[in-house]
Design a protein that fits this description.
Layout: H1 13-25, E1 30-34, H2 40-49, E2 53-57, H3 61-68, H4 79-87, E3 91-94, E4 105-108, H5 123-133, E5 141-144, H6 152-165, E6 177-180, E7 199-203, H7 206-217, E8 223-225, H8 229-260, H9 265-272, H10 296-306, H11 312-337, E9 347-351, H12 366-376, E10 381-385, E11 393-396, E12 399-402, H13 410-414, E13 418-421, H14 430-436, E14 440-442, E15 457-459
Parallel strand pairs: 1-2, 1-4, 2-3, 4-5, 5-6, 7-8, 9-10, 9-13, 13-14, 14-15
Antiparallel strand pairs: 6-7, 11-12
Helix pairs in contact: 1-7, 5-6, 8-10, 8-11, 11-12
Bound molecules: nicotinamide-adenine-dinucleotide.
Length: about 475
């Protein structure tokens, strides 16, 4: 592989693009992946599986060290596959950017959180781009995958690259390439994986789109090209806002069903789901979690505010979804009130603390908010059980507090006054829960097919909540 870092004069445009295309189709290209988390590591493994050399960069030395020893930290990645990739030297991880110039294609998969005031925080993208820019050379393609607001690729990433490219006389779209391609990975989803989930890509120029699409086509069955990075950035936000709004809708209807009584939202949703067109099933729950749905919509509302535009759906959906943990906490308070125990002595057990079933990801999980609300209302004994989460802590009054964890046993259940079912993990023994928990607040309707004493069970949206 040629190493042109900076000094070599740029080759004529078509040559640069053709050369990269050839490297991609002959699998001689080196793939760089910046950020080796839920998005980056599966992506790195997908290219390694196709025979590419993959260089992973992560600022976390712990993660880099683990990965280089073949130790996996992402559930969707196969332990064996990672170990083999390391052993066969097709994948290696580094904690600095010193070798990034080796990569012909660089994917940026770093976090995009919000600030305390829910404004976008693109600092990780900027830091990563700055570091990559220092090693920019002709023939490189950069694809941003982190979810962000429209214009980040052209307004944030592009100027950083151009500042580094100018002294070398490199032109974007001719000598090096830039595109945005949002990530669609759904951790825990066994049916839709990288290979069979179509992806969208929009380049800064047509050449950027084409070469980025070619790079993606090496690991994904269908690549949908759009006319610009902005369209691709907006498309991703539409996907996530769509989920947020529909979850909020069904959460609101669940509360209405509880108010009215005699109508079970779960039965309603199941019935509506029989319509083969024009309806998509969403189910209620204790709130939204993960790194995407609670955060990404704010990226768009922030952008909208800059244009004196109010994104009403985003605001309304966030309000309803963010209220759900309070609604659940109220139900727990009522459950305790029906028991012989005083609130301050009540022992509450959280069943599941990850934000969705069968994964270990607890980021922004509604469990944390439920704990905070219960603590505020005087409940002190709160512990959890989760087969996927070995340690769990929550922020209470500004301090991070570990929550006691227990295995799910008949004794654990009997030792608590109320069990709150927050995450419907497949590994839970629901019959045991129904048999041994003195009171159950079920926010997922997980006990629907399990015989259970009605007196001790309340189900969100069923009228009993
Ligand atoms: N998790 C998902 O299901 C999902 C799905 C679609 C899109 N996304 C988006 O993908 C992006 C990444 O999310 P994730 O869930 O993989 O995050 P993550 O926290 O699991 O992984 C990000 C990794 O980037 C590393 N990192 C941070 N700054 C870095 C830097 N400057 N250089 C190198 N490495 C750096 C971190 O150490 C971490 O290991 C976010 O924008 C997210 O919104 C996530």
């Amino acid at each position: 592989m040629s190493r042109m870092n900076g000094t070599a004069p740029p080759a004529p445009t078509a040559d640069v693009q053709d050369h990269l295309a050839t490297q991609l189709t002959t699998r001689t290209a080196t793939i760089g992946v910046v950020g080796l988390g839920y998005v980056g590591l599966p992506l790195a493994m997908a290219y390694a599986a196709e025979g590419y050399n993959v260089l992973g960069i992560d600022v976390s030395e712990r993660i880099v060290d683990q990965l280089n020893r073949g130790v996996n930290h992402i559930e969707d990645v196969d332990d064996e596959e990672l170990a083999q990739s390391v052993q066969q030297e097709v994948f290696r991880a580094e904690s600095t950017y010193a070798s990034i110039g080796e990569a012909d294609v660089v994917f940026i998969c770093v976090p995009t959180p919000v600030t305390q005031h829910k404004d976008p925080d693109t600092a990780y993208i900027e830091q990563a781009t700055e570091a990559i820019a220092q090693h920019l050379r002709p023939g490189q393609l950069l694809i941003l995958k982190s979810t962000t607001y429209p214009d980040t690729t052209e307004g944030v990433v592009q100027p950083i690259l151009e500042a580094a490219a100018a002294p070398q006389g490199l032109t974007l779209g001719e000598d090096y390439f830039l595109a945005f391609s949002p990530e669609r990975v759904d951790p825990g989803n066994k049916e839709f994986t990288t290979a069979n989930t179509p992806v969208v890509v929009g380049g800064v120029t047509e050449a950027c789109t084409e070469v980025a699409a070619l790079a993606l086509e090496q690991i994904v069955g269908t690549v949908h090209r759009v006319s610009s990075p902005k369209v691709a950035e907006m498309e991703k936000l539409l996907e996530n806002i769509f989920r947020s709004v529909n979850i909020a809708l069904v959460n609101e209807l669940a509360q209405l069903c509880d108010r009215v009584g005699g109508i079970d939202i779960w039965e309603v949703v199941e019935a509506a789901g029989t319509k083969p067109f024009g309806f998509m099933k969403f189910t209620p729950g204790p709130g939204i979690g993960g790194h995407c749905i609670p955060i990404d919509p704010y990226y768009l509302s922030w952008l909208a505010r800059k244009y004196d535009f109010e994104t009403s759906f985003i605001t309304l959906a966030a309000r309803i979804n963010e209220e759900m943990p309070f609604y659940v906490a109220d139900a727990v308070m009522r459950a305790v009130a029906h028991s012989p125990v005083a609130l301050k002595d009540a022992r509450v057990l959280l069943l599941g603390v990850s934000f969705k079933p069968n994964v270990a990801d607890t980021r922004h999980s509604p469990a944390e908010r439920v704990v905070q609300v219960l603590r505020k209302r005087g409940v002190t004994h709160i512990s959890y059980t989760d087969p996927h989460v070995s340690e769990y802590s929550v922020t209470v009054n500004g301090t991070r507090e570990p929550l006691p964890g227990h295995p799910l046993t008949a004794e654990t259940l009997a030792d608590h006054d109320v069990a709150i079912l927050l995450t419907n993990h497949a590994a839970f023994d629901y019959e045991m829960i129904a048999a041994h928990a003195p009171m159950i607040v079920d926010t997922r309707n997980a006990l629907r097919d399990i015989p259970c004493d009605e007196e001790k069970l309340v189900v969100l949206g069923s009228g009993s909540f």
